[in-house]
User: Which sequence fits this backbone?
DNA sequence: TATTTGTGTAAAGTTTTTGTAAATTCTATC
DNA sequence: GATAGAATTTACAAAAACTTTACACAAATA
């Protein structure tokens, strides 16, 4: 089970080089050229963010990440002068690396951070396929935007998310979410699945129907 | 817990960009397009003043501020030539930044000033969405005006404020604020939430109802 | 292809939950 | 113990959520 790293870097060359090196080092690495789409992606084990990006700057992405998770973040800063300033600011990232940097150094810092954080890393939010559920806040984000769910909808999604990839029968779902067995047949579960899919929009497609069995979130 | 910054800058674009960056950096920032209204507002932790303003220039605002407070002030100066002149005069501001400036640099200087002036920032008051609760003074402000709360109302608000963004069940609220469990059903919590919302006026809308769960402040 | 079985979904009907005014009980203070 | 203000309960209206029904549609089966 290799660890996942998301890299956000607009310079194509740098991105390709770093991704290649990360793969060589045994990480599962995914690159983005801009902030768009980053937060739709499930939360990885570590982020590497360029502080200067075309659309949205690295800091604003950092803020959003920190809103849902305390996953380690490494910021890439441009020039020497800016680097010291940013580093001194302590904006909430775990490490700052000045460009140009050696790939080996980057990887060694990544490993250090993962070692350090791996211990008591408490994930605040569950994530999958653009869906994020923060149980403390009782808040759900689909593709980055908040979604208002009713009580049962939320409970159902939470159950699916905590069992992502697992096939769940209607009986099991009813037991867990409703807490008792319905008598006859009813479309209640289907009904709530429908509402969920609808409210989650695009991301709702990750809720799969298993004909004759029940439902499943993701692969 | 966040520090307040007032920005006076007539250029809409610059004002928006800087305000955005300040918010991203975790400050509570408020912008004015001209000098009017600035001094009516409560004194923040730091001012940023453009030296060239339509009605009243930044220097006269600076004078007035210095008349009542020694709060840090950063002046924004236009071009290179003027910058040096102003800087050499030492007009009483704590720092001078020439336009165009990098937002990162501005924020770094702000932090430096706040660190220097405030020492260790003693944060007495919690703030969110126009509601301020100063536990030392046991005083609550809603949209800037004092609100008289009863004991239970205050305790309830304080609990909500210290857990802003967190979903709180009625049981939890009762445990913490009332200290014991009610027997049967009762509308007591709802009742106090209602009074709070009423007394807080506009700002009361930040207390959200989570149907089937409880309540939550903000987010 | 025809049939059967299972699922999606809109809409109606029912239940649950919350908001709120008013009545009642409690508590501190004089 | 009288009184005023606060806290709690009661009762009901309003709003929101939940379940069921009914039927269309899709997939599996014969």
Assistant:
């Amino acid at each position: 089970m290799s660890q996942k790293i998301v890299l956000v870097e607009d310079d194509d060359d740098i991105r390709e080089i770093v991704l290649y090196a990360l793969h060589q080092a045994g990480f599962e690495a995914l690159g983005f050229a801009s902030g768009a789409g980053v937060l739709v992606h499930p939360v990885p084990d570590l982020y590497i963010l360029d502080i200067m990006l075309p659309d949205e700057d690295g800091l604003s992405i950092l803020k959003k990440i920190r809103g849902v998770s305390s996953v380690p973040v490494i910021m890439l800063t441009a020039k020497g002068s800016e680097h010291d300033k940013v580093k001194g600011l302590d904006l909430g990232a775990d490490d700052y690396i000045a460009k140009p940097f050696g790939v080996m150094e980057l990887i060694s810092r990544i490993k250090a951070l993962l070692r350090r954080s791996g211990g008591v890393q408490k994930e605040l939010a569950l994530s999958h396929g653009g869906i994020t559920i923060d149980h403390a806040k009782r808040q759900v984000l689909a593709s980055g935007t908040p979604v208002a769910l009713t009580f049962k909808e939320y409970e159902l999604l939470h159950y699916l998310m905590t069992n992502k990839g697992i096939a769940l029968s209607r009986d099991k779902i009813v037991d867990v979410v409703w807490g008792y067995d319905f008598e006859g047949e009813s479309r209640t579960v289907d009904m709530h699945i429908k509402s969920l899919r609808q409210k989650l929009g695009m991301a709702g497609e990750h809720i799969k129907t298993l004909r004759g069995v029940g439902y499943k979130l993701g692969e």
Q: What stands out?
A: Chain B has two domains: 4-118, 125-217. The domain at 125-217 of chain B is CATH 1.10.10.10 (Arc Repressor Mutant, subunit A). Residues 119-123 of chain B have pLDDT under 50 and may be disordered. Chain B touches chain A at residues 21, 24-25, 102, 104-105, 107-108, 111, 165-167, 210-213, 216, 219 (CB under 8 Å).
